[in-house]
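User: Hi! I have a protein structure encoded as tokens and I'd like to know what sequence might fold into it. I'm fairly new to this, so please keep things simple.
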């Protein structure tokens, strides 16, 4: 499932003369079958400018890592303390 949200810059940041915005982006968020966010893509039209992917543990379902597939795909891992 993908949900999209468009972002348009405020009028004070519009620099063109025809009245259209120079800054419009779409944030596409994806979810898995359990309703958990699996990441997002920041797009300018069809071009992805940035993206993030979330990973979840297969044993307990907790968030286990966040990565940027566009760059080196270096993953930042999460761990949880048992109290």
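Assistant: Happy to help. Inverse folding works backwards from shape to sequence: for each of the 83 positions I chose a residue that suits the local structure. Here it is:
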């Amino acid at each position: 499932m993908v949900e999209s949200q468009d972002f348009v810059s405020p009028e004070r940041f519009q620099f063109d003369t025809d009245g259209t915005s120079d800054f419009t982006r779409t944030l596409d968020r994806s979810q898995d079958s359990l309703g958990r966010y699996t990441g997002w893509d920041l797009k300018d039209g069809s071009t992805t400018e940035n993206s993030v992917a979330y990973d979840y543990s297969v044993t307990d379902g907790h968030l286990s890592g966040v990565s940027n597939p566009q760059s080196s795909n270096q993953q930042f891992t999460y761990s949880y303390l048992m109290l």
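A useful reference point when you look it over: The beta strands are 2-8, 24-31, 37-44, 47-56, 63-67, 75-77. Feel free to ask if any position seems puzzling.
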